[in-house]
Amino acid sequence: MSDVRFPLEWSPDWACTAELFLQYAEVYKEAVEVLLNGLQTRGLLHDYQPLPVLFLFRHYIELQLKGLIAYNDGTFENFHDLAVLLDKLKGLDPAVHLPYCSDMIPRLQKLDARSDGFRYPLSKDMKRFFQKTGDEEFYMMITTLSSMSKLITATIAELENVEGYYDYLKDNPNDFSEAS
Prior knowledge:
Layout: H1 17-42, H2 50-73, H3 82-92, H4 99-111, H5 136-143, H6 145-171, H7 173-179
């Protein structure tokens, strides 16, 4: 395989903030899919192997929501609270229909509020994460490979559908003005 350079500073001249966030989200989504497929194909060799998948998945959601928000109002949200980002998106565009995400994202946010539970074994105050989750059903969903896969697939599908809807509106502005 030849060595390929990938200049991180590059972006197309036409890329707005929304598109940059969505492009980053896309590569995180692809990483999630590759790792998840690998775990499903060969099975778990260690109990902690799904943690990078969950961390990258959580980051994908954050980037995707920020990109979708920027599509609506051009702003960049500089925080990591997934539930607040989801609420902001739904407030900006009441037509957005995300029933699965509306249930799952607040639960994920509550479980990993600071986006560090899937990255580190201990919190800053040296306590283990996930000792008491308060949502055993959701905890079982993300700690069982088959249900984690379904959760990831359903979440990605809903968020990608919204992105596709916005892409359509961007490419067909007359349809957007009629919908307003």
